[in-house]
Amino acid sequence: MQIHKILQSQGFGSRRDCRALVRSGLVEVDGQVIDDPFAEFDADGFEFTVDGEPWEYREKAYLMLYKPTAHECTRKPEYYPSIFSLLPEQLAERGVQPVGRLDQDTTGLLLLSDDGQFIHTWSSGKKKIPKRYRVELKHAHTPELIDALLTGVQLHDEPEPISAAAIEVIDELHLWFTITEGKYHQVKRMIAAAGNRVEGLHRQSVGGLELPEVLEPGDWAWMTEKHFTALASFSGGDD
Q: Number of C-alpha atoms within 13 angstroms, CB side, residue 195?
């Protein structure tokens, strides 16, 4: 693939922009400046630097972000900074999108990709993908509250009661709360329907993928094969 097309596919701008990058001497391969935008390289595993920053060719982008509080999962935020302000501009340029959304005040694991099928698969409620949250309650939980959440609570505009897939008690004000649907504000609405209130919400895992310990709020990382394997290590369904 020609080097300017490789750069374009990785989010470095239009073909014209990428040709200009090469001709300006800002692109290196194996420590050698490449000044011919039409020079061809095998894209598979291709590594290069742009203005001194190392990059690796990826046909599709798959990312993990530790979403901090006070950030919106949209390109056009209204009240808080966008999560895209936390990523290199090349990733936004190539069309990376969040896999589902987290509220501005919810923290934790957020997946992003420019692979439409991946986004559809892992945001679809039909697969019943488990998502595990650490919930901080306003009031101490009771056996009745937990029983109601596990049995099912009625949410506005939902035809049937919705139940938690699992609940684990941490202490009197904190729970591990697992859901498999992903409806709008689901955890907050369920707990409100059961007579309590969410004061803090953190997503720890999606499928079998845990938020990597090495990530701090605002950090991101590429997904690797081990992350894909962990993500898929759950019992899903089609109904």
A: 11
Question: Which residues share a beta bridge with 174?
Answer: 136, 171
- Percent helix, percent strand, percent coil in the chain, to nearest 5: 25, 30, 45
Residue type, 137: L
Q: CB within 8 A of 65, min separation 6: which ones?
A: 83, 86, 87, 109, 110, 111, 112, 215, 219, 220
Q: How far apart are CA 7 and CA 25, in angstroms?
A: 14
Q: Which residues contact 146 (CB under 8 A, 6 or more apart)?
A: 167, 169, 175
Options 17, 44, 51, 103, the catalytic residue: 103
Q: pTM for the complete prediction?
A: 0.91
For 34-59, what is each residue's pLDDT tens digit? 999 999 999 999 999 999 999 999 99
How confident is the model over 111-136, as pLDDT tens digits? 999 999 999 999 887 788 999 999 99
- DSSP E strands: which ranges in the chain? 27-29, 32-33, 47-50, 53-56, 62-67, 97-98, 106-113, 131-137, 166-171, 174-179, 198-206, 209-210, 220-222
103 flagged as catalytic:
yes
Q: C-alpha angle 72/194/66, rounded to 5°?
A: 25
